[in-house]
Amino acid sequence: MKLLQSLGILVLAVLTGCQSGQNAQSENSFFNGKDLSGFHVFNQGNEPSKWKVVNGEIICDPKGTGVFGDLITDKEYENFELDFEWKVGKGGNSGVFINVKEDSSFAATFATGLEMQLLDNANAEPRHQVDSTHWAGCLYAVECIGSNSKPNSYGEWNKGKIRQKDGEVTFWLNDKITFQENVTTEEFKAKVATTNMKNYPSFGTFRKGKIAFQNHTDSVGFRNLRLKEL
Protein backbone atom coordinates (compact mmCIF):
# COMPACT_ATOMS: atom_id res chain seq x y z
CA MET A 1 0.00 0.00 0.00
CA LYS A 2 2.79 2.40 0.93
CA LEU A 3 4.58 1.49 -2.31
CA LEU A 4 1.47 2.32 -4.34
CA GLN A 5 1.04 5.61 -2.50
CA SER A 6 4.68 6.48 -3.16
CA LEU A 7 4.30 5.68 -6.85
CA GLY A 8 1.17 7.79 -7.01
CA ILE A 9 2.94 10.74 -5.43
CA LEU A 10 5.85 10.34 -7.84
CA VAL A 11 3.56 10.26 -10.90
CA LEU A 12 1.68 13.33 -9.63
CA ALA A 13 4.95 15.18 -9.09
CA VAL A 14 6.14 14.34 -12.61
CA LEU A 15 2.83 15.42 -14.16
CA THR A 16 2.81 18.64 -12.14
CA GLY A 17 6.38 19.36 -13.16
CA CYS A 18 5.57 18.74 -16.82
CA GLN A 19 2.53 21.01 -16.59
CA SER A 20 4.61 23.75 -14.95
CA GLY A 21 7.22 23.36 -17.66
CA GLN A 22 4.56 23.63 -20.36
CA ASN A 23 3.17 26.80 -18.75
CA ALA A 24 6.64 28.33 -18.52
CA GLN A 25 7.33 27.40 -22.13
CA SER A 26 4.00 28.92 -23.20
CA GLU A 27 4.80 32.18 -21.41
CA ASN A 28 8.41 32.36 -22.62
CA SER A 29 7.66 31.47 -26.25
CA PHE A 30 6.12 34.89 -26.87
CA PHE A 31 9.58 36.49 -27.07
CA ASN A 32 12.76 34.42 -26.97
CA GLY A 33 14.98 37.33 -25.86
CA LYS A 34 17.40 36.78 -28.74
CA ASP A 35 15.75 37.85 -31.99
CA LEU A 36 12.44 38.85 -33.52
CA SER A 37 11.23 35.34 -34.30
CA GLY A 38 7.44 35.35 -34.11
CA PHE A 39 7.23 39.04 -35.07
CA HIS A 40 7.20 41.04 -38.29
CA VAL A 41 6.35 44.55 -39.48
CA PHE A 42 2.67 45.30 -40.01
CA ASN A 43 1.69 44.71 -43.66
CA GLN A 44 5.36 44.47 -44.65
CA GLY A 45 6.27 40.93 -43.67
CA ASN A 46 9.83 40.16 -42.61
CA GLU A 47 11.42 43.19 -44.23
CA PRO A 48 14.45 44.51 -42.28
CA SER A 49 13.12 47.26 -40.02
CA LYS A 50 14.05 49.77 -37.36
CA TRP A 51 13.28 47.13 -34.72
CA LYS A 52 16.05 45.00 -33.24
CA VAL A 53 16.92 42.99 -30.15
CA VAL A 54 19.79 44.20 -27.97
CA ASN A 55 20.72 42.54 -24.67
CA GLY A 56 17.32 40.90 -24.39
CA GLU A 57 15.42 44.11 -25.12
CA ILE A 58 13.27 44.93 -28.14
CA ILE A 59 14.45 48.34 -29.29
CA CYS A 60 13.09 50.67 -31.93
CA ASP A 61 15.38 53.41 -33.20
CA PRO A 62 13.43 55.68 -35.58
CA LYS A 63 16.74 56.93 -36.98
CA GLY A 64 17.99 53.41 -37.69
CA THR A 65 18.02 51.63 -41.01
CA GLY A 66 15.16 49.53 -42.32
CA VAL A 67 11.48 50.06 -42.97
CA PHE A 68 9.29 52.14 -40.68
CA GLY A 69 6.32 50.29 -39.19
CA ASP A 70 4.75 48.76 -36.13
CA LEU A 71 6.14 45.44 -34.92
CA ILE A 72 3.38 42.84 -34.83
CA THR A 73 3.03 39.24 -33.74
CA ASP A 74 2.70 36.47 -36.30
CA LYS A 75 -0.02 34.91 -34.15
CA GLU A 76 -3.44 36.16 -33.08
CA TYR A 77 -4.55 36.14 -29.43
CA GLU A 78 -7.96 36.36 -27.77
CA ASN A 79 -7.87 35.65 -24.02
CA PHE A 80 -4.48 36.42 -22.49
CA GLU A 81 -2.34 38.31 -20.00
CA LEU A 82 0.64 40.25 -21.33
CA ASP A 83 3.27 41.57 -18.92
CA PHE A 84 6.08 43.83 -20.10
CA GLU A 85 8.36 46.69 -19.17
CA TRP A 86 8.78 49.76 -21.33
CA LYS A 87 10.67 53.03 -21.50
CA VAL A 88 10.79 56.03 -23.82
CA GLY A 89 13.07 59.02 -24.22
CA LYS A 90 12.21 62.59 -23.24
CA GLY A 91 8.73 63.41 -24.54
CA GLY A 92 8.58 59.91 -26.01
CA ASN A 93 5.39 58.39 -27.37
CA SER A 94 4.58 54.79 -28.28
CA GLY A 95 1.92 52.17 -27.62
CA VAL A 96 0.94 48.52 -27.41
CA PHE A 97 -2.07 47.40 -29.44
CA ILE A 98 -4.31 44.37 -29.05
CA ASN A 99 -6.91 42.80 -31.35
CA VAL A 100 -5.15 44.13 -34.43
CA LYS A 101 -6.38 42.76 -37.72
CA GLU A 102 -3.60 42.66 -40.30
CA ASP A 103 -4.89 43.23 -43.81
CA SER A 104 -3.91 45.48 -46.69
CA SER A 105 -7.30 47.18 -46.37
CA PHE A 106 -6.12 48.63 -43.03
CA ALA A 107 -3.37 51.20 -43.36
CA ALA A 108 -2.32 51.12 -39.70
CA THR A 109 -2.63 49.07 -36.52
CA PHE A 110 -4.74 51.79 -34.87
CA ALA A 111 -7.47 51.33 -37.49
CA THR A 112 -8.55 48.16 -35.67
CA GLY A 113 -6.53 47.69 -32.48
CA LEU A 114 -7.06 49.02 -28.97
CA GLU A 115 -3.97 50.94 -27.88
CA MET A 116 -2.45 51.12 -24.44
CA GLN A 117 -0.70 54.47 -24.68
CA LEU A 118 2.96 54.72 -23.64
CA LEU A 119 4.05 58.29 -23.00
CA ASP A 120 6.41 60.56 -21.10
CA ASN A 121 3.49 62.56 -19.68
CA ALA A 122 5.60 65.34 -18.20
CA ASN A 123 7.35 66.27 -21.46
CA ALA A 124 4.77 65.25 -24.05
CA GLU A 125 3.34 67.51 -26.73
CA PRO A 126 0.72 69.93 -25.35
CA ARG A 127 -2.08 68.14 -27.25
CA HIS A 128 -1.32 65.01 -25.24
CA GLN A 129 -0.91 66.77 -21.92
CA VAL A 130 -4.35 68.40 -22.04
CA ASP A 131 -6.24 65.22 -22.89
CA SER A 132 -6.22 62.53 -20.19
CA THR A 133 -7.14 59.84 -22.72
CA HIS A 134 -3.72 60.44 -24.27
CA TRP A 135 -1.79 59.77 -21.06
CA ALA A 136 0.38 56.76 -20.31
CA GLY A 137 -1.55 53.57 -19.63
CA CYS A 138 -4.81 54.83 -21.12
CA LEU A 139 -6.92 53.38 -23.90
CA TYR A 140 -5.70 55.99 -26.33
CA ALA A 141 -8.26 58.62 -27.35
CA VAL A 142 -11.14 56.77 -25.64
CA GLU A 143 -10.94 56.27 -21.88
CA CYS A 144 -8.58 56.59 -18.91
CA ILE A 145 -8.40 56.48 -15.13
CA GLY A 146 -6.23 59.57 -15.22
CA SER A 147 -5.38 59.60 -11.53
CA ASN A 148 -3.46 56.35 -12.00
CA SER A 149 -1.48 57.51 -15.02
CA LYS A 150 1.85 58.06 -13.27
CA PRO A 151 4.70 56.88 -15.48
CA ASN A 152 8.27 57.02 -14.24
CA SER A 153 10.56 59.70 -15.61
CA TYR A 154 11.72 59.34 -19.20
CA GLY A 155 14.58 56.90 -19.64
CA GLU A 156 13.34 54.79 -16.71
CA TRP A 157 11.54 51.47 -16.99
CA ASN A 158 7.81 51.19 -16.34
CA LYS A 159 5.71 48.09 -15.74
CA GLY A 160 2.83 47.47 -18.12
CA LYS A 161 0.18 44.78 -18.16
CA ILE A 162 -2.75 44.02 -20.44
CA ARG A 163 -5.40 41.41 -19.72
CA GLN A 164 -8.24 40.40 -21.99
CA LYS A 165 -10.78 37.78 -20.96
CA ASP A 166 -14.09 37.32 -22.77
CA GLY A 167 -14.20 40.95 -23.86
CA GLU A 168 -13.18 42.44 -20.51
CA VAL A 169 -10.00 44.46 -21.08
CA THR A 170 -7.80 45.84 -18.31
CA PHE A 171 -4.64 47.93 -18.56
CA TRP A 172 -2.18 48.39 -15.69
CA LEU A 173 0.61 50.96 -15.43
CA ASN A 174 3.07 50.39 -12.61
CA ASP A 175 0.56 48.09 -10.86
CA LYS A 176 -2.35 50.56 -11.02
CA ILE A 177 -5.38 50.08 -13.27
CA THR A 178 -5.59 52.79 -15.91
CA PHE A 179 -8.38 51.32 -18.03
CA GLN A 180 -10.99 48.61 -17.47
CA GLU A 181 -14.09 47.95 -19.50
CA ASN A 182 -15.95 45.29 -21.47
CA VAL A 183 -15.27 46.34 -25.03
CA THR A 184 -18.06 44.21 -26.49
CA THR A 185 -20.93 46.22 -25.02
CA GLU A 186 -23.19 48.74 -26.70
CA GLU A 187 -22.14 51.27 -24.05
CA PHE A 188 -18.52 50.98 -25.14
CA LYS A 189 -19.44 51.31 -28.80
CA ALA A 190 -21.43 54.43 -27.97
CA LYS A 191 -18.44 55.87 -26.13
CA VAL A 192 -16.15 55.26 -29.10
CA ALA A 193 -18.69 57.00 -31.33
CA THR A 194 -18.10 60.24 -29.39
CA THR A 195 -14.33 60.17 -30.01
CA ASN A 196 -12.06 60.66 -32.99
CA MET A 197 -11.78 56.88 -33.28
CA LYS A 198 -15.23 56.92 -34.89
CA ASN A 199 -13.35 57.83 -38.06
CA TYR A 200 -12.07 54.24 -38.16
CA PRO A 201 -15.16 52.03 -38.59
CA SER A 202 -13.33 48.80 -37.73
CA PHE A 203 -11.72 50.17 -34.58
CA GLY A 204 -12.38 47.92 -31.59
CA THR A 205 -14.63 45.57 -33.55
CA PHE A 206 -12.45 42.46 -33.36
CA ARG A 207 -12.47 40.20 -30.29
CA LYS A 208 -9.26 38.48 -31.37
CA GLY A 209 -6.19 39.73 -33.18
CA LYS A 210 -2.48 40.36 -33.23
CA ILE A 211 -0.45 42.32 -30.69
CA ALA A 212 1.55 45.27 -31.99
CA PHE A 213 4.26 47.59 -30.69
CA GLN A 214 4.22 51.07 -32.14
CA ASN A 215 7.02 52.53 -34.23
CA HIS A 216 6.40 56.22 -33.55
CA THR A 217 8.80 59.08 -34.23
CA ASP A 218 10.48 58.41 -30.87
CA SER A 219 12.74 55.66 -29.58
CA VAL A 220 11.17 53.01 -27.37
CA GLY A 221 12.36 49.89 -25.58
CA PHE A 222 10.62 46.78 -24.23
CA ARG A 223 11.90 44.01 -21.99
CA ASN A 224 10.68 41.15 -19.79
CA LEU A 225 7.79 40.40 -22.13
CA ARG A 226 5.66 37.45 -21.03
CA LEU A 227 2.35 36.33 -22.43
CA LYS A 228 0.05 33.74 -20.90
CA GLU A 229 -2.98 32.57 -22.82
CA LEU A 230 -6.08 32.16 -20.66
Strand and helix map with partners:
Elements: H1 2-28, E1 39-41, E2 51-54, E3 57-60, E4 71-73, E5 80-88, E6 93-100, E7 114-119, H2 126-129, E8 158-165, E9 168-173, E10 176-182, H3 186-192, E11 210-213, E12 220-229
Antiparallel strand pairs: 1-4, 2-3, 3-12, 4-11, 5-8, 5-12, 6-7, 6-11, 8-9, 9-10
Short structural summary:
The protein has 230 residues and is of the alpha+beta class. Helices cover 17% and strands 31% of the residues.
Shape: globular
Q: Compute the gyration radius: what is it?
A: 19 Å
- Tally of domains: 2
Major sheet characteristics: 7 strands, antiparallel
CATH superfamily of the largest domain: Exo-inulinase, domain 1
Percent helix = 10-25%
User: Beta-strand level of the residues, as a percent range?
Assistant: 25-35%
What is the string of helix and strand elements? HEEEEEEEHEEEHEE
Distance between the termini: 39 Å
Structural class assignment: alpha+beta
Return the CATH architecture of the largest domain.
Sandwich
Total count of strands: 12
Specify the number of helices. 3
> Briefly, what CATH class of the largest domain?
Mainly Beta
> What is CATH's topology name of the largest domain?
Jelly Rolls
Low-pLDDT residue spans: 6-27
Give the integer mean of the pLDDT values: 90
Strand order in the largest sheet:
2-3-12-5-8-9-10
Protein name: DUF1080 domain-containing protein
Organism: Sphingobacterium tenebrionis
Domain 3-keto-alpha-glucoside-1,2-lyase/3-keto-2-hydroxy-glucal hydratase: 29-228
InterPro entries: AL/BT2_dom
